[in-house]
Design brief:
The protein is an alpha+beta fold. The protein has a single domain, classed as Calycin beta-barrel core domain (Lipocalin). Helices cover about 20% and strands about 40% of the residues. The protein has an eight-stranded antiparallel β-barrel with strand order 2-3-4-5-6-7-8-9. The protein starts with a helix and ends with a helix.
């Protein structure tokens, strides 16, 4: 182990424990061909995900709105301990030749994180993947199954998982998101 890696390891351990780490660099999955960013805009509910340290609540959803400067306003929310928590970020198309590869940042001091749309029909489901290499030794990835409604039939979830698997993305630790009792909360009506 190199001395620099040994120094970085204590800083990386909390990140590694909370996520799903894998040896080697990030996979390069196929993304949605002929992706239409305007059709993707709007409200998406999280149906299933790989565990993520930054998502601890229930009723997780994200609303995407195109801004006049062609950036995307990204507002994510969840209910945690009975309170609505929201965070606002900016999304960009990082490569105009490949518009399904978005980048999202929730902080002006942090770089954009990959937010790749692997597949979507725009009206029912979207499959999103994000991955970060750590020194090219291992990677930490995230995967989400999103829906325009709070639930999807089990068969649709299994079909979505198959798309991830065909792209060499391990979803064996994917969990269902908690979307029960969300529409009765006051904050939901305010969105």
């Amino acid at each position: 182990m190199s001395p620099s890696f040994a120094l970085l390891l204590p800083l990386l351990l909390p990140l590694i424990r909370a996520q799903v780490p894998h040896w080697g660099p990030c996979p390069e999955p196929s993304v949605q061909a002929t992706f239409n960013i305007k059709q993707f805009m709007g409200r998406w509910f999280e149906v299933a995900k790989l565990p993520a340290q930054f998502e601890k609540g229930r009723c997780i959803e994200t609303n995407f709105t195109m801004k006049a400067d062609s950036t995307i306003r990204v507002v994510s929310s969840e209910i945690l301990k009975g309170e609505c928590r929201r965070i606002e970020g900016i999304g960009v198309t990082e490569d105009l030749k490949n518009p399904a590869k978005l980048g999202i940042s929730y902080s002006y001091v942090l770089p954009y994180s990959p937010y790749w749309i692997l597949a979507t029909d725009y009206v029912n489901t979207a499959l999103v993947y994000s991955c970060t290499d750590v020194l090219r030794l291992f990677h930490v990835d995230f995967a989400w199954i999103l829906s325009r409604t709070r639930t999807l039939p089990g068969a649709s979830v299994e079909e979505a998982k198959d798309v991830f698997v065909k792209n060499n993305i391990d979803v064996s630790r994917m969990v269902s998101s908690k979307q029960q009792g969300c529409d009765s909360t006051p904050w939901d009506r305010a969105l």
